[in-house]
Specification:
GO terms for molecular function: glycerol-3-phosphate dehydrogenase (NAD+) activity; NAD binding; protein homodimerization activity. It holds the Pfam family NAD_Gly3P_dh_N. It catalyses: sn-glycerol 3-phosphate + NAD(+) = dihydroxyacetone phosphate + NADH + H(+). It is an enzyme of class 1 (oxidoreductase). The chain folds into two domains: 199 residues, Rossmann fold (3-Layer(aba) Sandwich); 144 residues, N-(1-d-carboxylethyl)-l-norvaline Dehydrogenase, domain 2 (Orthogonal Bundle), CATH 1.10.1040.10. It is built from 15 helices and twelve strands. It is α/β, with parallel strands linked by helices and 393 residues long. The termini are far apart. The protein is 44% helix and 12% strand. Bound molecules: 1,4-dihydronicotinamide adenine dinucleotide and 1,3-dihydroxyacetonephosphate. 1,3-dihydroxyacetonephosphate (13P) binds next to helix 8, helix 11 and helix 12. The site of 1,4-dihydronicotinamide adenine dinucleotide has 23 residues, from helix 1.
C-alpha cells in the first residue's frame, strides 16, 4: 500500500476505532505536496502478523506530537502496521484524574500538548513493559534526564522484542570523563536495538498543528531509513533520511547551547546583528565539534539538513531554551526556578547539555577551541554576567 492509501474500514485491533478521524489540522493542497520518499514495500516485520508494531516512549509535547504522526501513519498503512500505537505516559493526576484516562477518553494530552486532538488509535499506557510488548519499532522521546531509568526497565530479560529497532528524538549527550556518546548510541549499547536519530526544526506545537516543516532522520542502515520514513513522513512533516546518525543527534543537542546564547542576546536587548553573529559562530562550533569528536560525521548534515541550520534557527527564535535564557538575562533567577515558572512541567535540555559539553571539553583540554559553548556554560553555571557573552568571541 502506498503512503497515500485511504484508511481501512476494519482495523486489526479489538478496540472500537469506528469514529477515528485522520486529518491534520492544516491540509496541504495535493499539488504542493512533495513526492513521498516512502517506497511501495517495507522490509518485512519479524512478527507473525507480518505487520510492524510502533510504540512511543514519552508523552511530553514532542512525544505527543510524534506519537500523533506515527499513529496517523499506522492507521493509514494498516496492512503494514498494527493500527494501535501505544504511548508511554508517566502516570500523573491532573485535575483529579489519571493522565492516561484523560488521554484515552478525550484524546487530548491536557498536561503537555493541550488543544491538539490525538488520533483514537494512540493509546496512553502507564506501564513501560506493556508499551513495548511485541513492539518492533520503538520511538524514544523522553527528556534526556530520564532516559537511564527507562533503559534500566527495558534491559530486563524478555521485555523487548529481540528484533526491535529504535529511534531517538531526544536532544542531549552522554558524557563520561573523556568519552562522549549520543543517545542513539547509548540506547543501542544498553538495550541492543539498532538505533536511528530524528531531529529537525520541529517546535512540537507547530508540528502538532500541522504547519509544514521538515525533519532529518539519521539511520544506520537502508532498512532503518525505509521503516522510519514510513512511520513519520507526512504531507506536513517531510522526512529526509541520511546515514549520519551522529551528525543528526549532535545537531539537535548542540543547538540547545546556542539557543541559550540567543536568549541571553534577547534578554540583554541586543539586536539582530548580534543574534546573527551568535548563530553563525554557534553553527561553526557545532559543526567542528561533531567533526572533531565523531568520526564519519558529515559537515553537510549541519549546513544542508533540517537537523542542522534549520533547527538552530527555529530554536534560537522560538524555543524554550531561548525563552528561559532571555528570562535568566533579565532577572538573574536560577534556571531551575525559571524552568518551573515558564515551562509548566516541560523540561529544559540546553543547560545540562552545556554542562556535559563543558565537562567533556575540559577533560579533553579543548575548551579554548569552543569559546561560545564555554561562555554559555560560564554564564549558566559560574556566575559570569550575560553581557560577557560576546567578549572575546
Ligand atoms: N518540545 C519540543 O518542541 C521538542 C522537543 N524535543 C526533545 O524531545 C525530548 C522530549 O521533550 P518533550 O516531549 O518536549 O518533553 P517535555 O519537555 O514536554 O517534558 C515532559 C515529559 O517529561 C516526562 N517526565 C517528567 N518527569 C519525569 C520523570 N521523573 N521520569 C520520567 N519522565 C518524566 C513527563 O512525563 C512528560 O512526558 C527532549 O530531549 C527535547 O529536547 C525535540 C524536538 C522538539
Ligand atoms: O528542539 C526543539 C525544536 O526542534 C525545541 O527546542 P526547545 O527545547 O528549546 O523548545
Amino acid at each position: 500500500m502506498s503512503a497515500q492509501s485511504t484508511a481501512p474500514s476494519t482495523p486489526d485491533v479489538t478496540k472500537d476505532f469506528s469514529d477515528l478521524e485522520i486529518s491534520s489540522t492544516v491540509t496541504t493542497p495535493a499539488a504542493t505536496r512533495p513526492s513521498s520518499p516512502i517506497p511501495a514495500a517495507l522490509p518485512p516485520s519479524p512478527l507473525a502478523s507480518g505487520k510492524h508494531k510502533i510504540c512511543v516512549i514519552g508523552s511530553g509535547s514532542w512525544g505527543s506530537a510524534l506519537a500523533k504522526i506515527a499513529a496517523e501513519n499506522a492507521w493509514k498503512r494498516n496492512d503494514e502496521f498494527h493500527s494501535e500505537v501505544r504511548m508511554w505516559v508517566r502516570e500523573k493526576i491532573v485535575n483529579g484524574k489519571p493522565l492516561t484516562h484523560i488521554i484515552n477518553r478525550t484524546h487530548l494530552n491536557s498536561r503537555y500538548l493541550p488543544d491538539i486532538k490525538l488520533p483514537k488509535n494512540l493509546v496512553a499506557t502507564p506501564h513501560l513493559k506493556d508499551v513495548v510488548k511485541d513492539a518492533t519499532l520503538i520511538v524514544f522521546v523522553v527528556p534526556h534526564q530520564f532516559l537511564h531509568t527507562v533503559l534500566g526497565e527495558l534491559r530486563k530479560p524478555g521485555v523487548l522484542h529481540p528484533q526491535a529497532r529504535a529511534i531517538s528524538a531526544i536532544k542531549g549527550v552522554e558524557v563520561n570523563g573523556t568519552d562522549i556518546e549520543t543517545f542513539a548510541s547509548l540506547i543501542e549499547g544498553k538495550v541492543g536495538t539498532p538505533c536511528s536519530a530524528l531531529s529537525g526544526a520541529n517546535i512540537a506545537l507547530e508540528v502538532a498543528m500541522g504547519q509544514f516543516c521538515e525533519t532529518t532522520i539519521g539511520c544506520p542502515s537502508h532498512e532503518d531509513s525505509l521503516l522510519w520514513s514510513a512511520v513519520f513522513h507526512a504531507p506536513t512533516f517531510r522526512v529526509n533520511a541520511v546515514e549520519d546518525v551522529n551528525g543528526v543527534s549532535l545537531g539537535g543537542a548542540l543547538k540547545n547551547i546556542v539557543a541559550l546564547a540567543a536568549g541571553f542576546v534577547d534578554g540583554l536587548g541586543l539586536g539582530g546583528n548580534t543574534k546573527a553573529a551568535i548563530l553563525r559562530i554557534g553553527l561553526s562550533e557545532m559543526t567542528e565539534f561533531c567533526l572533531e569528536f565523531f568520526e564519519g560525521s558529515q559537515r553537510e548534515t549541519f549546513s544542508n539538513e533540517s537537523a542542522g541550520i534549520a533547527d538552530l534557527i527555529t530554536t534560537c527564535y522560538g524555543g524554550r531554551n531561548r525563552k528561559c535564557a532571555e528570562e535568566f538575562a533579565k532577572t538573574g533567577q536560577p534556571f531551575d526556578v525559571i524552568e518551573k515558572k515558564l515551562l509548566n512541567g516541560q523540561k529544559l535540555q540546553g543547560t545540562a547539555t552545556a554542562e556535559e559539553v563543558h565537562n567533556f571539553l575540559r577533560a579533553r583540554k579543548r575548551t579554548h577551541a569552543y569559546p561560545l559553548f564555554e561562555k554559555v556554560y560560564q554564564i549558566s553555571y559560574e556566575g559570569l554576567p550575560p553581557k560577557a557573552l560576546v567578549q572575546g568571541l
